[in-house]
Amino acid sequence: MRIAVIPGDGIGPEVVNEALPLLGWAREQGRELEWEILPHGADLFLSTGEALPDSDYLRIRDTFDAILFGAVGDPRIPDHRHAEAILLRLRQGLQLRVNFRPCRPMLEAHLPLKGVRPEDVWIEVFRENTEGPYCLQGERTEDRAVDLAIHTREAVEGLLGAAFSRAKVRDCRITLAHKANVLKYGHGLWMDVFGALRSAFPTVRAEALHGDALLCALVQNPTSFGVIAADNYLGDLISDLLAAFQGGMGVAPSASWAPHHPYRCAALFEPVHGSAPGLAATGTANPTGMILSTGLMFRYFGWESEAERLERAVAHALGAGEATPDLGGTLGTAAMGQAVRSRLG
Length: 345
Hints:
Blueprint: E1 2-8, H1 12-16, H2 20-28, E2 34-37, H3 42-48, H4 54-63, E3 66-71, H5 81-93, E4 98-103, E5 123-128, E6 132-140, E7 145-150, H6 153-170, E8 174-178, H7 186-200, E9 206-210, H8 211-220, E10 227-230, H9 232-243, E11 253-257, E12 267-271, H10 288-300, H11 304-319, H12 333-341
Parallel strand pairs: 1-2, 1-3, 3-12, 5-10, 8-9, 8-10
Antiparallel strand pairs: 4-5, 4-11, 6-7, 11-12
């Protein structure tokens, strides 16, 4: 397996530094992989004017199997155009339609809900990753602004097909988050595809809920949910709420993949916390989301043993209180990474 590593901006390089030794550890376990660190981020953009040149994009697309991604975003580029050029091109160009955001709390102290135990919560969000209102199409005048939301049957079927398949494997309920009562056209398409897939997966328990009602239900009774499917916007909100069940944005991992694998490079793995420039160079950034995203990459490759051992090591480190300040610990980024690695065995 060939992995393109893009540390990016802000705390991205710092948390990626705690993932790189895990790649070496997997190779020591007998897994065949190699990786290359790529320079794409704010510094490259400011020096060259290019965020992700065509030649670099095509090389990633055709010669790597996956991307391990830190974060992008830099206050020197306030309109975020380099971040959009990098992330959106990778997501849309590689057709990474499925964004997978698992929520499995590890410690009761991280779950801020009364009477709910971590072992009772296992929620997986399947978020469409390339369309919706995040397609960055629209217009703005002095007195009027329009953000265009695009939904295509191909993207919706790809996302919902992956979500239904996962719900069938887990034998759990799938819930579609929508607002078809007001977004009649775009979310109406989602409801149509969801209805067709309910018929195609007759053994899967399926329901559709208005997104606002679903957010309320998640707080009141999260144990009743299994797989949640949503468009780009609602999926973003729902998965960030669920990050709070795990200890915050610094803990949550994510994976994105192309359901139909159109190119060799068909998956991207990244934490969800963003570049957090205010934390950069302080040595206190939480590497947990990056480490767990690396575990998701191992599982994507079929390396189940390495994924399970890595997740267990994270849980043991957190259980011992060996964590960064955002989780109530005293360790720095590198020390927490070492605390996890020391438990890999």
